[in-house]
Amino acid sequence: MSPVAVVVGPPGAGKTTIGRALAAALGVPFRDVDADVVTAAGKPITDIFTEDGEEAFRALEERAVAAGLAEHAGVLALGGGSVLSAATRALLAGHTVVFLNVGLAEGVRRTGLSAARPLLVGINPRARFRELLEQRLPLYREVATVEVTTDDLAPEEVVARVLADLDRAGTTNEEDRR
């Protein structure tokens, strides 16, 4: 069993929103690794970061990604920092990976620099967001099968582009959508 598509990208790219819509378009189930981490830990991600630290969160996340890749046959959305793990990047090899890219200004607007996103909390969250993008962009591109920039696009437009790119890449077909 393997996901039809794995969705990656920075905070605010639309991984959950687009992942759900893509799964609906393909007629497959949706699964969110962040939700799996929350379930496994029994507490919100912000509490994991605060009480246990980022390292503990990343270990839970790595296990959740591995389980999702092994068990889920639909669309799987990963957390924004999942690609930081070399083990996760290795596991993504051979999978259809959709990188939802978002620019700095749009990402900041979408996230609202929310306290629910622990890595964006601090003295200068805009600078932190820029650092995250700079650090992770090469990693997203390393694992990506297709890349769609989500700035200025409605979710249905993003899904249409993802489907078109997946069709061009030969990673989906009409049977996948039935």
UniProtKB/TrEMBL annotation:
Per UniProt, what is one Pfam family of this protein?
A: SKI
Q: Which positions bind substrate?
A: 34, 58, 80, 136
Q: What class of enzyme is it?
A: transferase
Which residues take part in binding Mg(2+)? 16
Location comes to: Cytoplasm
User: What processes does the entry annotate via GO biological process terms?
Assistant: amino acid biosynthetic process; aromatic amino acid family biosynthetic process; chorismate biosynthetic process
Q: Where does ATP bind?
A: 12-17, 117
Which terms in the Gene Ontology molecular function aspect does this entry carry? Answer: ATP binding; magnesium ion binding; shikimate kinase activity
- Major localisation: cytoplasm
Q: In which pathway does it act?
A: Metabolic intermediate biosynthesis; chorismate biosynthesis; chorismate from D-erythrose 4-phosphate and phosphoenolpyruvate: step 5/7
Q: What is its EC number?
A: 2.7.1.71
- Which branch of life, at top level? Bacteria
- Cofactor(s) annotated in UniProt: Mg(2+)
This protein's GO cellular component annotations are: cytosol
What keyword terms does UniProt attach to this protein? Amino-acid biosynthesis, Aromatic amino acid biosynthesis, ATP-binding, Cytoplasm, Kinase, Magnesium, Metal-binding, Nucleotide-binding, Transferase
Cofactor mode of binding and number, as noted: Binds 1 Mg(2+) ion per subunit.
- Please name the InterPro entries in this protein's record: P-loop_NTPase (IPR027417), Shikimate/glucono_kinase (IPR031322), Shikimate_kinase/TSH1 (IPR000623), Shikimate_kinase_CS (IPR023000)
Q: Which reaction does it catalyse?
A: shikimate + ATP = 3-phosphoshikimate + ADP + H(+)
Q: How does it assemble?
A: Monomer.
**What is its biological role?**
Catalyzes the specific phosphorylation of the 3-hydroxyl group of shikimic acid using ATP as a cosubstrate.
Q: Which family does it belong to?
A: Belongs to the shikimate kinase family.
PANTHER family given in the database record: SHIKIMATE KINASE (PTHR21087), SHIKIMATE KINASE 1, CHLOROPLASTIC (PTHR21087:SF16)
Protein name listed in UniProt: Shikimate kinase
Species the sequence originates in = Actinokineospora bangkokensis
Top-level taxonomy: Bacteria, Bacillati, Actinomycetota, Actinomycetes, Pseudonocardiales
The gene behind this protein is aroK
